[in-house]
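Consider a typical record:
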Amino acid sequence: MARKDGKMDVQLRKKNEKTLLSPLATAKDMRREMEIKEEEKRWPQMEVPITLGDCLAGLTKNDLSEIRTSLGVYGASTLKKQELITVLEQQIPIMLPHLLNKIDDTRYRIIKQLASRGGHAFLPLESNQLDYFKHRGIIFSGMQNGKKTLAIPQEVLQCFNSMDTGSYRETVRRNTEWVKLSQGLLFYYGHLSLDELNSMVSYHVGMNVMMSDYLPVIEEAAWFYEEIQIETDGFSNSRVWDGEEVKKEHLTRPDLPFYPFTKAQLIAAGEPDFVDRTRAYQALVSFIMKNYPVDRVHADRLVEECVYAIQIGEAPSNLLQFLQSQLKIDSLELIKGFMDHIVMLNNTTRQWVIKGHSPNELSSSRNKPNIPQSTPFKAEVIDMATRNKVGRNDPCTCGSGKKFKKCCAK
């Protein structure tokens, strides 16, 4: 009888597993189908050269509303689709110079490449970048003669070409510097208020940056790069799960100054997907490669995940658990070796909660003996054990085709 009951228990467990997994699989399939449909919508048939009216006519009412909001066209929210198209045809050329004055060098070069080719060509942009340009009425995607094409409407092309002077390119250069400095500051500090960020950027460029000029540039960059999160009280790095918690940690250390990074360090850290590969970082990469048949890319990705775990407050034991889920650590010698490297990585990693300092720098500081060590904060939505095979730069498990950090990790 016990055996029979045992078999029944197993059968029930399997039945329950199927019951639980079935909706998850269905949801995953539905999301994949939605992504496929979205991708198909992104590449409709297109004839070039193309006018603004032709581009707008192929959009949904929601897309048109996005353009209206992005450009700050007011008083048109209740219009029907064709009426809204008419308004946008008139307003986009008028509002466009104001928008183009907020872009940086990356976006300028994308527009310039298309403009130099008559306003249409194919460039390998990410989906969020395509949406950024579409929702500002600048660049539209489609299929021409069976090939993917990006096109600038003729009215927009004319406006850009008339603006593309030496003084305009100087504005683009200025914006580029602001964006990279801002992204670099948030990479190391995690979260800053708008006043803090503006003040630090002003310091590094050597002049007072007007908030009215600075804020629109950073807000546009946040949408394009997705490296910055816009918070109610400032900005956070895109990897920060709780900007308010980082802010609180900063406030608990009023006597600890922000680490004095150089302008060059911040510019470097302001590049998208920047990784601070310190000596301890590289040493752990080498240790993994020495003991396992993995290439440098794989080893580097594992260590990058460890650094991210440190930033969000994971304990060294959780980092070891994560690495054990990825690599076969089957001896005390390997465990000791990994822990030595993990502790060194933790102590030399510049951390958000201690204002860009590393724990080693604080512990060795003779001038500030009473500065507390980092008190890691716990991010409830992160669990290294259950996310053990998904790196931030890995394809998302939902099947969207996007990087994890730009999909379900958001």
User: Anything to note?
Assistant: The first strand starts at residue 120 and ends at 121. Residues 279-349+380-406 form one domain. Confidence is low (pLDDT under 50) at residues 366-390. Residues 257 and 315 are 25 Å apart (CA to CA).
